[in-house]
Amino acid sequence: MSRLSSRLEAVVQLLQPCRTLADVGTDHGLVPVAAVLRTIAAHAIAADLREAPLRLARHNISRARVADRVTIVQGDGLRALEGRAVDAVTIAGVSGQLIVRLFDAAPHVLASVEQLVVQPNNDAPVVRAWARGHGWHLRDERMVEEGGRFFIVCAFAKGAGTDPAYAVDGWSTAPLESVGPLLLVRKDPIALRWCTAQRDRVHALVADGVTSLAHELAIWQAACDAMA
Ligand SMILES: C[S@@+](CC[C@H](N)C(=O)[O-])C[C@H]1O[C@@H](n2cnc3c(N)ncnc32)[C@H](O)[C@@H]1O
């Protein structure tokens, strides 16, 4: 099987053992293939809205000789999984807004799910906020740098009450949703590079007169200071 990109490798590494993984918006199908080859998932579903990506997924599944363990499903988001006993869901390479929309559209499917691993291309704070509001605790998160871009991967597990990941001295929830509470506490070196880039970008805008971003600049500066 072809080697996974650092981004998809992080998605697979954050998965915990499960019976049936559904990778929604699978495209090439490499995440479900890796999950069964590494016996993280006993079975997997490669799901996508469109037929063309699923042709590529079918090719990769067949090449890896895991057709007996990976099922292809065509349909819209998690609603395509109705009636299937799925206990883990991955969604990677799409916007945070789409991830939240797909979760909101299928609460009955999520009812049986025990873990979510998501890699939003943007709007990660929207995903973290959604999770906090819907009974999911942030179990782990990782930032990877690939091709000059930063990617965040978040793993959530069902949890009761307040998410302990957000109990960080001196920090309130909203800035932590932007920075990533676990990345901050761990002083993650890649996250520090990302925060530094964010700070420099916002700093340039504030220096150009966009004073409405002064509060955001203060958050990135505080994150850089905390992780240095
Ligand atoms: C940019 S690709 C990401 C592929 C792969 N997950 C990755 O991270 O490399 C996004 C995929 O999501 C699929 N997609 C978009 N909207 C979807 C939806 N509502 N339900 C299922 N799949 C969707 C697209 O067809 C496309 O194959």
Per the CATH scheme, the topology name of one domain is: Rossmann fold
The average pLDDT score comes to 97
Q: How many separate helices?
A: 10
User: How much helix, percentage-wise, in residues?
Assistant: 40-55%
Arrangement of strands in the largest sheet: 3-2-1-4-5-7-6
Which distinct ligands sit in these coordinates?
S-adenosylmethionine
What fraction strand? Answer: 15-25%
Which CATH C-level class of one domain is it?
Alpha Beta
Please give the largest β-sheet.
7 strands, mixed
Computed Rg: 18 Å
Instruction: Give the helix/strand class.
Output: alpha/beta
Going by CATH, the architecture of one domain would be 3-Layer(aba) Sandwich
Distance between the termini: 38 Å
Order of helices and strands: HEHEHEEHHEHEEHHHH
Shape: globular
User: In CATH, what is the homologous superfamily of one domain?
Assistant: Vaccinia Virus protein VP39
How many distinct beta strands?
7
Enumerate the spans where pLDDT stays under 50 for 5 or more consecutive residues. none
Molecular structure report:
This protein has helices at 6-13, 30-37, 51-63, 96-104, 107-110, 124-133, 173-179, 181-185, 189-207, 214-227, and strands at residues 18-24, 41-48, 70-74, 88-94, 115-120, 136-146, 149-158. It has a domain at 6-164: Vaccinia Virus protein VP39 (Rossmann fold, 3-Layer(aba) Sandwich), CATH 3.40.50. The protein is of the alpha/beta class. The longest helix is centred in the last third of the chain and has 19 residues, at 189-207. It is globular, with a radius of gyration of 18 Å. Strands 3-2-1-4-5-7-6 form a seven-stranded mixed sheet, sandwiched between helices. The mean pLDDT is 97. The structure holds S-adenosylmethionine. S-adenosylmethionine is lined by residues 8, 24-27, 48-50, 53, 76-77, 92-94, 102.
